[in-house]
Amino acid sequence: MSTDSSAAPSAQTAPSASASASASTSTSASTPPSQDGSLNGAVVLITGANGGLGREFVSQALARGAVKVYATARNPQDWDDARVVPLALDVTSEADIASVAAAAQDTTIVINNAGVSPKDDDALTTPLDAVRRQFEVNVYGPLAINRAFAPILGANGGGAFIQVHSALSWASMPAHGAYGATKAALWSLSNVLRIQLAEQGTRVLGLHFGYTDTPMTNGIDSPKNDPADIVRAALDGLDQGAFEVTADDTARRVKSALSSPPEVLYPFLVK
Ligand SMILES: NC(=O)c1ccc[n+]([C@@H]2O[C@H](COP(=O)([O-])OP(=O)(O)OC[C@H]3O[C@@H](n4cnc5c(N)ncnc54)[C@H](OP(=O)(O)O)[C@@H]3O)[C@@H](O)[C@H]2O)c1
User: Fold this and answer.
1) Fewest C-beta in 10 Å: which of 102, 182, 188, 220?
2) How confident is the model at residue 247 (pLDDT cuts 50, 70, 90)?
3) Is the CB of 164 under 6 A from ligand 1?
4) What is the CATH code of the structural domain delimited by 29-257?
């Protein structure tokens, strides 16, 4: 596929992943001083911490000075680091979320990272129950985390949510039919939460990027980002007061096409 910034993704192939993952941040409004995104001294909670990006978030948060990281996962692992507190959390379980919120009252930054991208994800044929399950993990779970932790972040001075979206919040691919819909829904929720939580000084940062080399993309034959670059871009953006990070060329390209008619991003629609 083309890596030309004016080219569009085809129906059969992914928007191209960028070899360079330099961050583009947008700060459409000035960031109030209370919305402190510094990792230095932060207490960070990460969902899906055992995954490809999750592990990077844990290690890079610590490297930037986080004093504690709640590494949550369905099956928490031992991290062999006293600063890492493993906690059991299935983001679809209200009981788990309540128990983690009670245990992690000192949290200042939450990274809503857990997600799924099933192999069978055809919008026309995948059973609706499977589509619903995907929405449970990628949309309702993160929203429930936002609801549980908004008062905690507020009580701790504001802090931030990092919401892990996707380039597919803004572009569609038949191979990822419902997945794109879940990421678009989470993006929309992040937008409204950003407005509502600004008053308490909590920043909501949306993170967008294309294919990245994690277990989620095993078997996908396409150029992929290094997860370390994506996480670095996200945490740089947090430091810089960004509300949004487009962490690779794919995300930047699809976002720039949003104000155009659909045939600009999908030229094959025009016969
Ligand atoms: N990789 C990409 O190309 C790409 C591109 C754009 C956006 N993203 C997004 O980046 C985020 C991280 O994905 P990744 O690439 O690091 O994939 P990954 O390696 O598959 O990690 C996903 C993590 O989410 C966890 N998870 C799944 N269902 C869960 C549930 N019900 N409750 C709690 N945790 C659950 C998984 O835990 P288990 O180990 O228990 O299954 C896994 O640790 C996701 O939101 C994904 O949609 C990825």
Assistant:
1) 102
2) very high
3) yes
4) 3.40.50.720
170 lines ligand 1 (CB under 6 A): no
Residues near 114 by beta carbon (within 8 Å), at least 6 away in sequence: 47, 48, 51, 54, 91, 137, 141, 142
Query: What percentage of the chain carries pLDDT values higher than 70?
Result: 86
Q: Which two tokens stand for residue 30?
A: 């000035």
Q: Which strands form 109-112's sheet, in the order they lie side by side?
A: 24-26, 244-246, 203-208, 160-164, 109-112, 43-46, 68-73, 84-88
Residue of 128, 145, 233 lying closest to 181 (CA atoms):
128
- pLDDT bracket for residue 36 (50, 70, 90): low
Q: List phi, psi (to 5°) of 203.
A: -90, 140
Domain borders along the chain are 29-257
**Per-residue pLDDT at 19:** 34
- The C-alpha R_g of the chain, in whole angstroms, comes to 18
Query: Do the bridges between strand 24-26 and strand 244-246 make them parallel or antiparallel, or are there none, so unpaired?
Result: antiparallel
pLDDT tens profile 11-35: 333 444 333 334 455 433 333 333 4
Q: What is the pLDDT of residues 110-151, one digit of tens each?
A: 999 999 999 999 999 999 999 999 999 999 999 999 999 999
**Cβ 149 vs Cβ 192: under 8 Å:** no
Question: How many Å apart are CA 179 and CA 234, to the nearest integer?
Answer: 21
Are 214 and 231 within 8 A, CB to CB?
no
Residues near 85 by beta carbon (within 8 Å), at least 6 away in sequence: 68, 69, 70, 71, 104
Q: What atom of ligand 1 comes closest to residue 50's alpha carbon?
A: 43
Q: Is the pLDDT of residue 171 over 80?
A: yes
Both tokens of residue 218?
């095993």
